[in-house]
């Protein structure tokens, strides 16, 4: 298939899945798109590998992933899982009185993507930035959450091979950074201070879905307000919200649940 033809077929397959709120099987996609079943299967597998669609193993139906919904529809209908997640983030921002959000790791990189963000009630807070956006994992609290849950030796090798990390301040103390990751894994949350940018701090904890950690939520603010003394308090709020998000995802249709981490 020519590249242009493949792109068109991929878009048709994706549009068909998006137009099927209850999910759709392989045969249904092939019938509606008039694309050969084998080609549809290859396209769907590629989309699933990139977390654009999710396959419900029980029904064998494909659904749009929550990751894509978060990026494309930040103000979805209030009865959807996405709307609930956003409302939980708004409640967290009110409780913590700081900006908060939800990130996911990007497969094969030491990068995280900010998928959702709710502003601080304060007039002075973290600067407003575009969502979604990419950030280096080693300088963010969510990135540290994801790294802390990996095999330590594999994480060491990945970071040693990452030129951007080696040139960063953290890269000059790899052993110390790995010790911090081990502490984060033990206590169940990670923090960042003056790392992503001077004067900014954040705390994050994992969101567990079906035994995996595809997402992490965070609270961030200026260092003069988000002090080290507040970190345990913020971590407690994060854990509570993470559990609420997990319960929301557990009782939504399979297609809106998170798939494997990127």
From TrEMBL:
<dbReference type="InterPro" id="IPR036390">
    <property type="entry name" value="WH_DNA-bd_sf"/>
</dbReference>
<dbReference type="InterPro" id="IPR014757">
    <property type="entry name" value="Tscrpt_reg_IclR_C"/>
</dbReference>
<dbReference type="Pfam" id="PF01614">
    <property type="entry name" value="IclR_C"/>
</dbReference>
<keyword id="KW-0805">Transcription regulation</keyword>
<feature type="domain" description="HTH iclR-type">
    <location>
        <begin position="4"/>
        <end position="66"/>
    </location>
</feature>
<keyword id="KW-0238">DNA-binding</keyword>
<keyword id="KW-0804">Transcription</keyword>
<dbReference type="InterPro" id="IPR029016">
    <property type="entry name" value="GAF-like_dom_sf"/>
</dbReference>
<dbReference type="InterPro" id="IPR036388">
    <property type="entry name" value="WH-like_DNA-bd_sf"/>
</dbReference>
<dbReference type="GO" id="GO:0003677">
    <property type="term" value="F:DNA binding"/>
</dbReference>
<dbReference type="GO" id="GO:0045892">
    <property type="term" value="P:negative regulation of DNA-templated transcription"/>
</dbReference>
<dbReference type="InterPro" id="IPR050707">
    <property type="entry name" value="HTH_MetabolicPath_Reg"/>
</dbReference>
<dbReference type="Pfam" id="PF09339">
    <property type="entry name" value="HTH_IclR"/>
</dbReference>
<dbReference type="InterPro" id="IPR005471">
    <property type="entry name" value="Tscrpt_reg_IclR_N"/>
</dbReference>
<protein>
    <submittedName>
        <fullName>Putative IclR family transcriptional regulator</fullName>
    </submittedName>
</protein>
<dbReference type="GO" id="GO:0003700">
    <property type="term" value="F:DNA-binding transcription factor activity"/>
</dbReference>
<feature type="domain" description="IclR-ED">
    <location>
        <begin position="67"/>
        <end position="251"/>
    </location>
</feature>
């Amino acid at each position: 298939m020519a590249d242009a033809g493949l792109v068109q077929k991929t878009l048709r397959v994706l549009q068909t899945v998006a137009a099927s709120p209850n999910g759709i099987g392989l045969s249904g996609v092939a019938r509606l798109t008039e694309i050969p079943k084998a080609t549809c299967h290859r396209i769907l597998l590629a989309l699933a590998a990139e977390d654009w669609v999710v396959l419900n193993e029980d029904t064998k139906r494909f659904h749009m992933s929550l990751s894509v919904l978060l990026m494309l529809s930040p103000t979805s209908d209030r009865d959807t899982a996405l709307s609930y997640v956003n409302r939980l983030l708004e409640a967290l921002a009110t409780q913590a009185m700081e900006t908060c959000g939800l990130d996911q790791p990007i497969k094969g990189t030491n990068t995280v993507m900010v998928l959702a963000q709710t502003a601080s009630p304060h007039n002075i807070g973290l600067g407003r930035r575009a969502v979604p956006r990419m950030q280096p994992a080693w300088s963010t609290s969510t990135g540290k959450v994801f790294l802390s849950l990996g095999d330590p030796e594999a994480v060491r090798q990945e970071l040693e091979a990452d030129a951007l990390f080696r040139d960063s301040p953290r890269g000059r103390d790899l052993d110390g950074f790995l010790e911090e990751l081990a502490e984060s894994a033990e206590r169940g949350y990670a923090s960042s201070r003056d790392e992503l940018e001077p004067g900014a701090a954040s705390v994050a904890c994992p969101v567990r879905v079906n035994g995996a950690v595809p997402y992490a939520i965070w609270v961030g603010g200026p260092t003069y307000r988000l002090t080290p003394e507040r970190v345990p308090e913020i971590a407690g709020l994060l854990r509570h919200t993470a559990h609420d998000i997990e319960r929301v995802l557990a009782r939504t249709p399979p297609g809106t649940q998170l798939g494997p981490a990127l």
